[in-house]
Amino acid sequence: MTNPDDSKPEENATPPPAPPAAADLENQREAGGGGVANILRRWHREDFLKRGSQALRVFGFVFSVLAFVIMASNQHGDWKDFDKYEEYRYVLAIAILSTLYTGLQSWKQFQEQSTGREIVPRQNAAIIDFFGDQIVAYLLISAASSAVPLTNRMREGSDNIFTDSSASAISMEFFAFFSLGLSALISGYKLSNQTYI
């Protein structure tokens, strides 16, 4: 028979768990930083996105107006009139459309910010912003891209004020595209994080 006193202690025995530390009720912190801190961070992020979107649309408006004005005033007689070229008429038409869209969106955002009331319900506004920014950005890059080859061919023959004005209007459309492209990214982020409750 075996004697219980002769048995060897187990080498793989785990020590008993330590008693839980006394809870500090005054300085409780959750792993995520707390409820109020999360809410404040979310408000700051939403405010930053709203202001960023507003600034990008204002920049898009300024660049669109510049493209419109530069191209509309690009008439220097004979072959140096923008309306003799289909590509430049397309640049002007899209600059007008972009000016109207970005101007209305900027006005809407300023109006909502000053009155504190939403003109368009939030769910509808997010969809309109996202698709509107994308469509207008695509039209801007399309118009600018269609006019670049014509301007480069003209500049090979002679570099004058007509080609310089055309290049300036095209570059303003590219800048407007970049502004609205970034605004579309923000609109997409806001649309994807939108709650439908």
Global outline: elongated
Q: Give the tally of β-strands.
A: 0
The helix content, as a percent range, equals 55-70%
Order of helices and strands: HHHH
Report the sheet with the most strands, covering strand number, pairing sense and barrel closure: none
Question: In terms of structural class, how would the helical and strand content be classed?
Answer: mainly alpha
The helix tally amounts to 4
What is the beta-strand fraction?
under 5%
Distance linking N and C termini: 74 Å
CA radius of gyration is 31 Å
Provide the residue-averaged pLDDT.
82
Indicate the low-confidence ranges by residue numbers: none
Keywords:
197 residues, mainly alpha, 69% helix, elongated
